């Protein structure tokens, strides 16, 4: 399993209250705006949680096939209530139960900082993206934090800036093609970034 059991327990405990956060709701909308999903046939949301991103996507691009994956059963239960037509699967992000080249767009919001080694997960994004497909991430622009009261460390610095993110995704064959900063009234500041597979040379 890619995810620390303490991380899974944390998000299991937050399933009923997660959607109450104004930051979570606003960020989901900002990610969809940034992703420009019009015309995307299949959208895969990794670490979908309660499905906030997919809910907005379903409203804006009703013809898109929406797929959400998460390890937290309680989060997925909330998502299923809100997204009866989506495909929602309990799955490890480093072993997506999806075919090669099946996705037009992969999204992942505030999850990469929870992974001690994100490369296997990023390689899965590159694998499931069709030619011309892309991924969109939202990552916090803050420093790493040691394990505290929640019982697990976080790894923010490798995705806190465009240059750091570019270095992190390169081993998976991805590159940053577009980015912007998103700031919320709460004081949260995030990097929204678009990634594409690096073209293979003959």
TrEMBL record:
GO annotation terms (biological process): methylation
Gene Ontology terms, MF aspect: methyltransferase activity
Methyltransferase type domain sequence ranges: 44-136
Domain of life: Bacteria
Leader peptide range in chain numbering: none
Record InterPro entries: Methyltransf_11, SAM-dependent_MTases_sf
Keywords: Methyltransferase, Transferase
Protein name, per record: Methyltransferase domain-containing protein
Origin species: Isoptericola haloaureus
